[in-house]
Design goal:
Elements (H helix, E strand, L loop, with lengths): L1 E2 L10 H13 L9 H20 L5 E6 L2 H15 L6 E4 L5 H12 L3 E4 L10 H7 L4 E5 L13 H9 L5 E5 L16 E5 L10 E6 L24 H36 L5 E3 L9 E6 L4 H10 L2 E2 L14 H7 L2 H5 L1 E5 L6 H17 L1
Helix pairs in contact: 1-7, 2-7, 3-4, 7-11
Bound molecules: 4'-deoxy-4'-aminopyridoxal-5'-phosphate.
4'-deoxy-4'-aminopyridoxal-5'-phosphate binds next to helix 3.
Length: about 375
Amino acid sequence: MVYLDYSATTPVSMAVLDEDYLFNQRYFANSNSVHALGKEALVNITNTTKLIKKSLNLLDHKVIYTSGATESNNLALKGIALKNKHLGNHIITTPFEHGSITATLNYLAKQGFVVDVVEMDEEGLVDLDDLESLITDNTILVSIGLVNSELGIVQNLSKIAEILKKHSQIVFHSDMTQGIGKVLLDYSVADLISLSGHKIYGFKGIGALLHRKDIKLTPIIHGGKSISNSRGGTPPTSLIHSLGKAIDEIYKHIEINNPFILELKEYLLSRLKGIKDCYINSNRHSIPQIVNISYTKASGKEMQKYFSDHDIYLSTTSACSSDKAISKVVKEITGDYERAVSSLRISLSHLTTKAEIDEFIKVFGAYDESH
Ligand code: PMP
């Protein structure tokens, strides 16, 4: 098979799997238990938290472990909105956010919060003037993702943070799920950061919300005292450990992996030139891991099925919105309906080979010639 859907999820790395096997035999105790075995498990969580903060260079942030980025996003948005509603009821976001952001904000809008969507420029970057003009004394929260999951466009979070810093009541949340382990920057420009294990060769069912120490959140999962006051429940000790391992591993290899993936992307782009009616939607701001194209001879759905029938796996929009026939993000960037219904997301990894790209092009070319 040829797997070209690493932005939907990644396989668990051998390093994470091996360590998990050993870990579960040794540290199975409940870290909330006060006996020696429980304390040992708690020490392990504390060490993992230190490792995560060091790998991400977020030494002044706290870590809340969650079930994944969907929960992290829910906790960040609901947690801040509810905690700070006495300061205002206005929230700003972008049209490029993941469904777990949009759905949570739709929910908050029904609870009386006012949500504004900032305009994007023609290259898919946040229009900074529009952002500035949307801010009022009532704005308490801004949520802007680091990397869009469909086109892979990286937002300039430092510039955005500079604007937001002028307003002390604004908390800046960034869903970094598609950027962690891929994009190097000072993540601390955001007050709250969401990430997920399964996008970085870790397990599904574990993620984190990192937040500045002085930030307080209303919990969405209430429970007994645990490692965080903002999230009840017995900490999933081995999943937490696995997340630390996955983050540590990906940052140890990022300097080697990123140039390698960029080379693969350039190879893929050069080979795609041979296919008529194929347009590239990703642009110079996109990460090397994501190549979004439109092939206007067929719908994205048809092409996804065709590739799947040939053991080649990729996405139309993003995995979480793949039941929708049209890519909102491609429509926004290209202004072209035909391109939006025929978009395909190819996502690459350090595990991808040129031979896999060749196979993909061969199967693609065969379709193109016969239609
Ligand atoms: N945010 C983004 C940008 C994502 O790509 C995803 C996963 N598709 C999520 C959030 C949700 O992550 P999880 O599957 O860990 O809930």
